[in-house]
């Protein structure tokens, strides 16, 4: 994990993403396509955790809004991921209200669950999750924990960014993420899960 708990590969991509977004705001369609490719996998994984099989449709609605309002966005690559996640979440909640169903977590892509070392017990638990295991275990988490884990691990947001998406304090999201990962680790039989929040989730409140 990199600084502030972000996966290192996300940090590397954020520089390229920010540059692509800046060019897209000037009308570069190829740059918008590049930004889409950077963001869509994590965004789709997050939406699958909220609306299940309807994730593709909700993502399409979200991207229409993202494209429409792109010139209003101000920020870097990490900020763009947070902004798009907020839009996607609003579209997902609208969808759930229309469908009158409870959010349900579904299978997560294995590649977005890959957390580079150094490894904590939480990292080890997540790295061994198969797609079916993710479906079973994440769906069993309380809603706040499941959504925090999805935003931190799948979308790759840091604590403050995830907090802005959820409309909560960073400390509350940090705690929900830690508890969710700790519960997953325990359910998977990972030994020595400590009571202290892991270093990788240690952003300031």
Low-confidence stretches: 1-8, 105-132, 191-205
User: Strand count, sense and closure of the main sheet?
Assistant: none
Helix segment count?
Answer: 9
Number of strands: 0
- Integer average pLDDT: 76
What oligomeric state is this? single chain
What portion of residues is helical?
55-70%
Termini separation comes to 18 Å
Gross morphology is globular
The radius of gyration over CA amounts to: 16 Å
Order of helices and strands: HHHHHHHHH
Instruction: Determine the strand fraction and express it as a percent band.
Output: under 5%
The structure class reads: mainly alpha
Task: Characterize the structure shown.
By secondary structure, the protein is an all-alpha fold. Helices cover 65% and strands 0% of the residues. It is built from nine helices and no strands. The chain has helices spanning 8-25, 29-51, 55-69, 77-99, 121-127, 131-139, 143-155, 159-166, 170-187. α2 packs antiparallel against α3, α2 runs antiparallel to α7 (143-155) and α7 (143-155) crosses α9 (170-187). The longest helix has 23 residues, at 29-51. Mean pLDDT is 76; it is low at 1-8, 105-132 and 191-205.
């Amino acid at each position: 994990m990199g600084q502030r708990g972000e996966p290192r590969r996300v940090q590397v991509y954020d520089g390229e993403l920010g540059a692509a977004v800046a060019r897209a705001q000037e009308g570069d369609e190829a740059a918008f396509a590049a930004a889409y490719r950077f963001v869509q996998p994590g965004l789709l994984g997050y939406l699958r955790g909220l609306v299940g099989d309807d994730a593709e449709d909700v993502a399409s609605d979200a991207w229409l809004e993202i494209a429409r309002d792109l010139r209003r966005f101000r920020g870097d690559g990490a900020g763009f991921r947070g902004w798009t996640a907020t839009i996607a979440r609003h579209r997902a909640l609208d969808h759930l209200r229309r469908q009158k169903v409870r959010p349900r977590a579904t299978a997560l892509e294995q590649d977005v669950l890959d957390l580079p070392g150094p490894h904590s017990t939480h990292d080890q638990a997540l790295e061994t999750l198969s797609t079916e295991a993710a479906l079973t275990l994440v769906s069993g988490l309380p809603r706040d924990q499941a959504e925090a884990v999805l935003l931190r691990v799948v979308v790759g947001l840091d604590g403050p960014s995830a907090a802005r998406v959820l409309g909560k304090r960073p400390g509350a999201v940090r705690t929900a993420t830690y508890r969710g990962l700790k519960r997953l680790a325990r359910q998977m039989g990972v030994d020595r899960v400590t009571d202290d929040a892991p270093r990788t989730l240690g952003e300031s409140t």
